[in-house]
Specification:
32% helix; Rossmann fold; six-stranded mixed β-sheet; alpha/beta; 253 residues
């Protein structure tokens, strides 16, 4: 079983301390939810985990299975088994989805040396996510709607099948049907690491969200409330219901 550990994490951006003393541990096959008011530091947390250049770690460590990722480049963190689904996926002209997946999978832990079945795997996953072949032949996210971009992000996640996935507002821009397809695809990775069709170690997930609709398909093991850059409460899925009923007022200073 793998484990992602965030220990006493502090993060600064643009000269401002955004996260302080943040602690979180996620194991294989677990679904953790990170909620909090706007400006609490949720997206900062997600991007800092992957080493975004705009964010500086001022304290603490990020580890997978004891390997310290804190000072590693983004590609090295990805090779260690960490993947981020962006809140606002960028457009990349001139590079197709298959191009980027072939390159990424070459350094992935999930496949080893045999990538011969990747094209058929991509086609099958794309079909299950409702992604048409025409979209796969364009530059990444070029001319895609917000919902289509999120589906393409999910396709990349499912193709790579990392140890841990950080999903920043997975439900943003998706209608009800698309949300179900994307969520169930992620759930399959959580339940079983299925690149070879065999049951195995499930992906650990951190979902950054404002709402509970994604949790209808991806039940949460733990819910964390982030306020002013630190986790102020951790509980089970019932904590989401409390937030929906009372808002974040009870946790604000």
């Amino acid at each position: 079983m793998s484990e992602l550990q965030i220990i006493d994490l502090g993060v600064q951006t643009a000269g401002r301390q955004v996260l302080s003393g943040l602690n979180l541990s996620v194991k294989s096959g677990e679904v953790h939810v990170l909620m909090g008011p706007n400006g609490a530091g949720k997206t900062t947390f997600a991007k800092a985990l992957l080493g975004h250049y705009s964010y500086t770690v001022t304290s603490g460590r990020i580890l997978i299975d004891g390997e310290d990722l804190t000072d590693l480049a983004t590609f090295a963190r990805a090779r260690a088994g960490l993947t981020l689904l962006l809140q606002e996926p960028p457009e990349i002209p001139g590079v197709t989805v298959e191009d980027i997946l072939r390159t990424a999978v070459a350094g992935s832990l999930s496949y080893g040396k045999d990538n011969s079945y990747l094209p058929s795997k991509i086609a099958s996953l794309a079909d299950s996510l409702g992604i048409g072949s025409a979209l796969l032949e364009r530059g990444v996210n070029m001319g895609a709607s917000g919902g289509e971009k999120k589906r393409l992000e999910a396709l990349q996640l499912c193709s790579l099948s990392p140890k841990f996935g950080v999903l920043d507002e997975l439900d943003s821009g998706l209608d009800v049907d698309a949300l179900k397809k994307v969520s169930m695809a992620v759930k399959d990775l959580v339940d079983r690491k299925s690149q070879s069709g065999e049951d195995g170690e499930g992906m650990g997930v951190i979902i950054v969200t404002h709402y509970n609709r994604v949790l209808e398909y991806l039940p949460a093991d733990k819910v964390h409330l982030l306020v002013d850059g630190t986790i102020v409460e951790t509980g089970d899925a019932s904590l989401v219901a409390k937030v929906e009923e009372y808002g974040y007022g009870p946790w604000l200073g």
